[in-house]
Amino acid sequence: MGLPRKTILILLAFFAIYFIWGSTYVLNKIAVSELSPLFLAGIRFISASLLIFVIAKFMKLSLAINKRQLINCVIAGFLFMAYGNGVFVWALKYVDSSFGALEASTQPLIVLLMMRMIDGKKIQRMSIIGIVLGIIGMYLLVSQEALVYQENSILGMFMIFTCVISWSIGSLFVAKAELPSNFFINTGYQMLSGGIILLLTSFVIGETWLSPLLWSAPVKISMGLLVVFGSIVAFTSFNYLLKVVSTEKVSTSAYVNPVIALILGALILNEKITAQSILAAVILLTGVYFINSKKNIRTLR
C-alpha cells in the first residue's frame, strides 16, 4: 500500500520549506546586490500574489474573503513578508547570506519561549538544554572579530534578530487565526498585502526603483526563482503545514535551511565559512534538535 495522500502532501511541503527556503538566502543576496531591498521584496511578493490569483482563476478556485480573514491576512502579510522578509533582505546588504540563515535558525527557540509566555506551555528539560545551547551558539556566531568590524554588520545582525521575532509571532498567529480555508488563496492575500506595504514603504523612504529591463541576468533568474519557488511553492507549503502539524514541528526547517545556505553561499557567492561559524552552526542546530525532540512536539489537530 502506498502512503496516504495527506502524508505525501505533508512530506512534499516539508521538502519545500527545507530545501527551497534554504536556497532563498543566496537568491536574495544576489538580487539585493543590484536592487533596493524593500523594492525587491515588494516586487517579489506582488508578482507572486498576482500569479497565484491567475492560477486560482484557471483552477476555478473562489477568491472570496470576509472582513476578518482579510484583516488577518494583512496582519500575517506584515509579520511575514513586510517585516520578516523585507527587513531581512535589507540586512543582507551588510551580512553574508549563510550568516543570516544561521541567525534565523534561532526561530524554534523564540517560538518555544513565546508559547511559554502566551499559552503557558511548560518548557521540558530537553528544551531548556536546547535554549542554553542556542544562546551559546548565537554568541559564537555574532562575536566573530571579522564580522563585528564589517561596516553596519552589528546593525544587520540586530535587524535579522527582530525579523526572527516577527516571523515567530506570525507563525503563532497564523496557526490560530481565521484565514481563507484554501492555503493557496490564503498565501496570495498575505503576499499581496505584504507586497503593497513593502512598495509603499520603499516609495516613502525614497528607494531607487530600477526597471526590470535594466536588471542583470543573475538578478532576473534569482527573482524568477524567488517568485515561483521561494514565494508561491514554499510559502503555500508553509501555510498548509501550520494548519496540519504543530508550529514547533514547522520550525524544524531551521535544521536544514542554514546548511543549504552555507553550502550554496560558499559555492555560488564564495562566502568564507570560518571554523567558528561551523562550531556555532553545530551548537545552534544541536539546540534546535533538543527543542524539537519527539518528546517535546505535539501535533495540533
Features:
301 residues
Please explain how this structure is put together.
The protein has 301 residues and is mainly α. The protein has one domain (5-296). Helix content is 76%, strand content 0%. It contains 13 helices and no strands. It starts with a helix and ends in a 10-residue tail after the last helix.
Q: Estimate the helix proportion, in percent.
A: over 70%
Number of structural domains: 1
Secondary-structure element series: HHHHHHHHHHHHH
Please tally the β strands and state the result.
Answer: 0
Poorly predicted spans: 295-301
Helix/strand-derived category reads mainly alpha
* Beta fraction: under 5%
First and last CA, distance: 25 Å
* Outline: globular
Number of helical regions: 13
Q: Biggest sheet: strands, sense, closure?
A: none
Determine the mean pLDDT.
Answer: 84
Radius of gyration: 19 Å
